[in-house]
Design a protein that fits this description.
By secondary structure, the chain is of the alpha/beta class. It has a single domain (9-19, 52-379), classed as 3-Layer(aba) Sandwich (Rossmann fold), CATH 3.40.50. It has 11 helices and 12 strands. It has helices at residues 77-80, 92-104, 200-203, 215-233, 248-256, 276-279, 288-297, 301-305, 310-314, 334-343, 363-379, and strands at 9-14, 30-31, 63-64, 111-119, 125-133, 139-147, 154-158, 177-182, 241-246, 263-269, 321-326, 348-353. A hairpin with a 5-residue loop joins strand 5 (125-133) and strand 6. Helix 4 packs across helix 5. The longest helix has 19 residues, at 215-233. The chain is globular, with a radius of gyration of 19 Å.
């Protein structure tokens, strides 16, 4: 069931706050409000022509940084809302459908460990370690969180940013959610593998010479196989399956969601890999920078990246999607984030963030706003 977004699109304001990794060597001396501290007026854009204004707490132009480039890349909100998705390369849909079919045919053989802890109060969840098999026979580790009262009303696959995760954080999940938290291949505390680099700069280039070998295809397969594993372990979770991913996980989610009918809604926060042709021109501190530098020496990789463009894939997503996209982000260039949102043809909600991957005053309150909006969105799925 689609969320109640007035029949079209809603834009609100808030914050990112999902810092997946520290920015090494970057000073964050503080925040200075531009225009005498006035906030940025965010527009509401809805297909039915209605809407109202919302004023986020901060203004991206006032963030002080020590970076050698502008993390807004000169884009204001109007320009960001106009960033397009690249056209799909020949055989784009066929490639992804074939990869999905291969992953769905994988015997995932999930193994659920004992409960290691219980998190929370009235909405407590039990945490279990889990492992399952993904495409290529890779064993993927992670966690499953289950409502402590045993009442499961929906399921969720929750991924992560580069450098993985060390533990689940179920604050995002509505009550009654059984969730699987995979560490994507080569990432996090539970999916390190000897033939896969774990460092983001090397991981993002692994297998980039071919669309069949590129690691991001395997990461999408890890998502599909996680959904299968959760359904086998907790059959009632399959009745309403959702997805949540940030940064790396936001981009991988956009790549994975169009081809799998099991998902009914998703939240994507500061999604990566949107509009690769544009990303290749924009310096950043995240995984896009090693790709940009590699492309400068090996321009032919653009042909492979075209099959892994999150904005191109987003054109094929028909389920309701909530996107948290930042006006200022050193790690994931904002134009790419908004390209993912702009390409979505189905019901969507945009939460405009002051900044992503960048600490600033007011961050905690803005993170709480975003978390609450995402939680409501998933509950309505």
């Amino acid at each position: 069931m689609a969320p109640s977004t007035g029949g079209g699109e809603r834009i609100s304001g808030g914050f990112p706050g999902l810092e997946d990794r520290a920015l090494a060597g970057v000073d964050h001396p503080g925040y200075v409000g531009a225009n005498g501290g006035a906030g940025l007026e965010a527009r509401v854009v809805r297909t039915d022509g209605g809407g109202h204004g919302h004023r986020p707490r901060g203004q991206a132009a006032g963030l002080v940084h020590g970076l050698p480039f502008d993390p807004t890349h000169g884009y204001d909100l109007d320009r960001l809302l106009a960033v397009p998705a690249p056209e799909a390369p020949s055989g784009f849909g066929e490639f992804w459908r074939a990869l999905h079919a291969e992953a769905r045919g994988t015997r995932v053989a999930p193994r659920l460990g004992r409960c290691t802890e219980t998190i929370g109060g009235p909405e407590a969840v039990a945490v279990h370690e889990v492992a399952y098999t993904s495409l290529g026979g890779r064993r993927i580790g992670g966690w499953v969180t289950l409502p402590a009262d045993g009442q499961v009303r929906q399921g969720c696959v929750v991924t992560h940013g580069y450098d993985g995760r060390e533990a689940p954080d179920p604050a995002l999940l509505p009550p009654g959610t059984a969730a699987i938290w995979p560490c994507l291949r080569g990432q996090g505390a539970r999916s390190r593998q000897p033939d896969l680099p774990s460092e983001a700069a090397a991981h993002v280039l692994h297998g980039i010479g071919s669309r069949r070998s590129y690691v991001h295809g395997g990461c999408a397969a890890d998502v599909w196989c996680a959904a299968t594993a959760l359904a086998e372990l907790v059959p009632t979770s399959a009745r309403r399956l959702t997805y949540a991913g940030a940064s790396l996980g936001g981009g991988i989610g956009a790549l994975a969601l169009p081809w799998d009918e099991r998902f009914v809604a998703a939240v994507l926060t500061v999604p990566s890999f949107g509009n690769h042709p544009l990303r290749l021109t924009l310096p950043c501190t995240g995984s896009g920078e090693p790709v940009r530098q590699h492309h400068a020496v090996h321009p032919e990789v653009a042909d492979v990246l075209a099959y892994f463009d999150a904005a191109t894939a987003a054109r094929h997503i028909g389920i309701p999607v909530h996107v948290g996209a930042a006006l200022f982000d050193p790690a994931v260039p904002p134009p790419g984030q908004f390209a993912v949102h702009n390409a979505l043809p189905g019901p969507k909600e945009l939460h405009v963030l002051t900044a992503g991957h960048f600490p600033h005053p007011g961050e905690a309150a803005e993170e709480a706003d975003l978390l609450a909006a995402q939680r409501r969105f998933l509950a309505r799925a």
